[in-house]
Write a structure and sequence with these properties.
18 helices; binds glutamic acid; Rossmann fold; 3-stranded antiparallel β-sheet; alpha/beta; elongated; Helicase, Ruva Protein, domain 3; ATP-binding; 431 residues
Length: 431
Amino acid sequence: MVRVRFAPSPTGNLHIGGGRTALFNWLYARAKDGKFILRLEDTDKLRSQQEFVDEILNSLKWLGFNWDEIYYQSQRFNIYREQAEKLLKSGLAYTEKLPDKPGEAIIFKVPQQKIKMQDLIHSGIEFDTAVIKDQVLIKSDGTPTYNFACVVDDATMDITHVIRGDDHISNTPKQVLLYEALGFKLPKFAHLPLIMNIGGGRLSKRTGATAISEYRLMGYLAPALVNYLLLLSWSPGENRELIDIKEAIKLFDLTDVNKTAATFDLKKLGWINNQYLKNADSDKLADEIIPMLIEKNYIHKDGFDRNYLVSIVKLFQPRLLVVNDFADWADFFFLDEPNMDPAAEEKYLKKDLSREFTLFIERLDALKSFDIASIEESFRGLISELGIESKALIHPIRVALTGKTIGPGLFEVIYYLGKERTKERLSKFIK
Ligand code: GLU
């Protein structure tokens, strides 16, 4: 049975790179009906923090990567010591006492040999261990080193496939030597390509090395982020960019993972998020949006019209890049007066439009039914009566009503704003 593991060190938040490694492990487990194991590599007592453990677990849950087993390395020190002592007994390791340190370190005698490693993503990798120094297994303070704890765990947890970032390729020959010394069976290795920023450099805070939890706060949807993480190193083929995780589980295999470095592109993530937002269930989206509107005092906890709100969510859905855009873009529906963009006001409302606005209000007043089609009809009638182009009036009306130059269709905006508010806002610009 396939058993894979994701092994984060809780010394920081879960970032894009870790999220991608977690995804490919989880996905492979689900694709092969195997087990996904979570292992917190918290041997560094000073740098590991509970706060990061919580953050990592919450992010994984949010992304939907449920685990089948969970382990903490800090609870397994006796297992590492036992294995290290085995190596001492067989003469493959030795102890060393440093003058100013309390205990003794256990050190592995690195045999000199050429190692051929198989990798499911990269082809065979060859390595000469002559360049590797003897390796500390257990430090004098009793903590195991990463390479040793990793091998002992992967072997005793029956991990069949080690799927992790390229940055661990250089650790792999050291680990292979330890497997051999301990008499453990080697797992298969699959090293995922590096993720770089658009400019070809390392991911930085500015270029996407942001915690998964921050993407959540910014208003990205979990399925959209997962879809994007997938594309970072895999493709469903035929230039497809949108793929549901359930379908990915059916199509995925490790051997199809890209060898070349991936590029993290925030624009593309935005595009994917918009695609998911477009198709999202408006009611569910409203559930995410309501707390944001309450916090901004746009609506009151128990005094708003939910159906009305859902209609407005529907109106904006096709345009949102992130959920949080809604509160900024739709603010004019909730404020007594729109937040006026000064440049837009200068551009479209400087000219005296008293006559045009008055005539438009008269037409709205004369409508038998205040619906989107009738509003549009009355507007078109006015344009032809005045003999002007529609854009000569559409932009000024939009700015007067919303304070902005862009937004959903104007007639829908007027409809949902309502006749009274529309008249009131236009009247402000009638001299
Ligand atoms: N704790 C290591 C890390 O976060 C795990 C590496 C591995 O998967 O072997 O990089």
